[in-house]
Specification:
The chain is an alpha+beta fold. The protein has one domain: 2-Layer Sandwich (STM4215-like). About 20% of the residues lie in helices and about 40% in strands. It starts with a helix and ends with a strand.
């Protein structure tokens, strides 16, 4: 089964050692934990490139990575580490999925604070990936 772009990005974040499947900096897909833990990373599918620009066998979906943190500095540093690491990731294979590259779309963005006074940051990427026929 092919992973969604958000699922694939979550796998890449964990593989890079920037998040975990449980524990410190857990990485989730499409749903941020409501209360705990304070520090969390969540990936969201956000669309992609106009189909007229698609190359045969490749897709270019877009993804948003949202970082939530109790402390501003820790959140910004985590979002920046994801930005720098994924933005320089090329030709990686994650299980049956091959990522040609992650292209950063904008810089780390401070969204504000959530209802529990935790800092929120986002980073956006366009993936180029191979798709099975």
């Amino acid at each position: 089964m092919t992973r969604t772009a958000a699922e694939l990005t979550a796998v890449a974040i964990v593989a890079a050692g920037l998040g975990t499947t449980a524990g410190t900096w857990p990485v989730g897909v499409s749903r941020e934990p409501a209360k705990a833990p304070a520090n969390a990373i969540t990936t969201y599918d956000t669309g992609g490139v106009d189909p007229l620009q698609l190359e045969e066998g490749l897709r270019r979906p877009t993804v948003q990575v949202r970082v939530r943190s109790a402390a501003y500095g820790a959140g910004w540093n985590k979002a920046n580490a994801i930005y720098q690491t994924l933005g320089t990731t090329y030709g990686q294979i994650y299980g049956a999925d091959r990522v040609v590259g992650f292209a950063c779309r904008g810089d780390v963005f401070y969204v504000g604070r959530d209802a529990n006074d935790r800092c929120l940051f986002t980073v956006n990427f366009e993936l180029t990936r191979d798709m099975p026929s």
